[in-house]
């Protein structure tokens, strides 16, 4: 008789942000950006950019959807951390970025990357860190339906 009571307590204590293998997070991250001339390595500029995102994470399909982009991206999981890597190499841009999100509270988020804007002869280095909090699925849906 104690087993159904224990199971019911576990169900009632589950977070509203985790339902049906989904996790919904609102994240704030600060990105430090350094712009250099790749030929001289001279620093052209530095700035910090504050970034807010709302994510829907499908733990079964291993996809993450940012409400701003609206489409899912595949991820891998290592040591309870989501990892997404981006690589671009075309006539205008060569970039390599890595995004990490810890799946255990307290949720932390980080990113780092490099890019060469070939058409502008500029190189960018970025590094960001921040934190996330669980939100209700309706927060993601509302953000998804708002124009960027």
What would your notes on this structure say?
There is one protein chain. The protein has two helices and ten strands. The chain is mainly beta and 148 residues long. The N and C termini lie far apart (52 Å). Strands 1, 2, 3, 4, 5, 6, 7, 8, 9 and 10 form a ten-stranded antiparallel β-sheet that branches. The chain has one domain (2-144).
Summarize the SSE layout with pairings.
Blueprint: H1 2-13, E1 18-19, E2 22-36, E3 43-58, E4 63-66, E5 72-74, E6 76-78, E7 81-89, E8 93-102, E9 108-117, E10 122-134, H2 137-144
Antiparallel strand pairs: 1-2, 2-3, 2-10, 3-4, 4-5, 6-7, 7-8, 8-9, 9-10
Task: Please provide a brief summary of the model.
The protein has 148 residues and is mainly beta. The chain has one domain. The chain has helices at residues 2-13, 137-144, and strands spanning 18-19, 22-36, 43-58, 63-66, 72-74, 76-78, 81-89, 93-102, 108-117, 122-134.
């Amino acid at each position: 008789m104690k087993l159904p009571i224990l199971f019911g307590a576990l169900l009632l204590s589950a977070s509203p942000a985790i339902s049906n293998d989904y996790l919904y997070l609102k994240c704030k991250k600060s990105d430090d950006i350094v712009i250099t001339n790749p030929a001289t390595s001279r620093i052209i500029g530095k700035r910090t950019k504050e970034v807010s995102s709302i994510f829907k994470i499908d733990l079964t399909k291993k996809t993450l959807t940012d409400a701003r982009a609206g489409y899912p991206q595949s991820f891998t999981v290592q040591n309870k951390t989501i990892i997404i890597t981006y690589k671009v190499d075309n006539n205008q841009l060569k970039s390599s970025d890595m995004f990490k999100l810890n799946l255990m509270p307290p949720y932390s988020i980080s990113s780092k990357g490099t890019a060469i804007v070939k058409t502008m002869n500029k190189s960018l280095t970025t590094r960001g860190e921040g934190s996330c909090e669980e939100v209700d699925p309706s927060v993601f849906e509302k953000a998804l339906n708002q124009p960027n």
